[in-house]
Amino acid sequence: MADRNPSPSSVHDFSTWAPVLRLLRDGGTREATASSPLRVTGRIGRQSWSLPLRRQAPPSGRAAQAADMRDETEAVERVRHALVDAGIDEISFTTKIVPAGESAIRLLARSPATESGLGPHPGALLLVEGAVPQPWRCLPDPVPGAVPAAGADPALLERTLRERLPDAVGATEAEIARAEARLGVALPDELKALYRVTRSRWEDWGDDHEAPARECAAVGCELFPLDDVYIADASSRHCSWPFAAMEAVVTPPHAAVQGLVGSPGWLVFGDNGGGDRLAVDLTPGPRGHLGQIIMIGHEENVGASLVADSLTDLVLDRLGEPRGGSHEDRPPAVAHVNIRSLPSIEAAAHAGLEVLSIGVWDAEPLSLAPVIGLPRLRTLVAYPGTLADPLEIAELTALEYLEIGPEEWRVLLDADAVPRGLSAAAVKVHGDDDRDVAPVRAVVNELLAIWGRPPIIQTVLRGDLGPMP
Questions:
Q1: DSSP-assigned states of every residue in 116-143
Q2: What is the pTM of this model?
Q3: Nearest CA among 461, 414, 312, 469 for reference residue 447
Q4: How far is CA 217 from CA 155, 169, 295, in A?
Q5: Is the CB of residue 191 less than 8 Å from the CB of residue 269?
């Protein structure tokens, strides 16, 4: 691919990058010499950056301070301002640095069809505009027999809260109606009863700084204002393709909560104070109750846990015993073959397999023959060098996500055997291997071209850093 000429934008001006390059040369991981230049890669974005600098430890007994990184921060800010001016979110780079003389830096502008990755390599390639992984497309199963728990009692709930919060300002019927119109769903009776007592607005509390704590104690969580209640459908739980494609939606027959990413029946009304959201569940699992209270964990991508059988039970602190979570007795829809998990592809293969991950492997490369023809296998991730014949991938007709090494991708590309059903893909490298980004970039751009997606653009800048101090 031909290099682009530097544009008038300051992000494509060598002087913008010179302070960063001098820092890397003068404080890199090892000393550069004329015969053995220092190869450096890094990334700078509007919100963060990654530079392989050897930072000096602070004096004994003192924590690191902002002043200790002043030179680095000032050099990076110069680039970040240029990114903002150019309308670029982040940019990766690679360069070879010698102590003195002309230097060159290769800038790799991220394609809008790629997710952010580590170091100079891109993350997932978004081959189909707007496509999301299969778990994010799953809707809840019907629950025609679901009924509210015996403890659900809107009248008791409202009386209890009025006793605990006698001075609270409640929502009017018009405000509740507006919330229902905004959400596109009728609020369950218990949730209406709660908000008739308190609409949980800061302006209603005035100078009463203890009011939020009293309300939290009365309700059993940090209550959201009525205007902030939202539906936790799948789109509310963002996750990048490499992680999302590794998930599976499974709901065992005895589960109280469906093992979904999100649901149009999960109405979030509060927080536990640690980032986990509480919701009224209108689409419960086979052994759940209509209107049960669930917690959606902020560190998980799929599923939720049962907190109480009803909102009344939550307020009255009647928290029942768990009745089978969404992850219990999960069939092996996701299989990991590596030196510490499953010992073979045969051990992973079965009709319900959705995700196959092949990790670090110290034996002969593996054949994919045991999983060819499996109807639900949609994700394959294989560490470089673990596949005996990469062309077997072409026989996995249900794949929507594929992550393999650059050499394996090269085999598929040269044979015109890249599965056309893919929605996303990634090039997997050994750890943080950044020795040569050119082969990876070439593979990425060839894959993007197949789907007509915008490529990664390389720009080469040249200049003189001057002698080392």
A1: --STTS---EE-STT---GGGG--PPP-
A2: 0.86
A3: 414
A4: 19, 17, 17
A5: yes
